[in-house]
Amino acid sequence: xxxxxxxxxxxxxxLVSVIMNLLKQSGxxxxxxxxxxxxxxxxxxxxxxxxSSLMETMRRMFSLY
Length: 65
Prior knowledge:
Strand content: under 5%
Largest sheet: none
Structural class: mainly alpha
Distance between the termini: 27 Å
Mean pLDDT: 92
Radius of gyration: 17 Å
C-alpha cells in the first residue's frame, strides 16, 4: 500500500472538514456542500491512478485482451 497516498487523502479530508466547518459557521451552507463535493472529486482523482494500475495488472494477469 502506498503510504503517501493515504497521507494525502487524510490531509485532504482534514482540510475539507476545516473549510466546511468555517463555511457552516459563517452561514454559507451551500458553499460548504460545494467544498465537500470538490474534496470528493479531488480524492477520487488521487485514487484513480492506483485503480488504473490495479486494472492493468489484472488485465495482464488474466490475459484479458
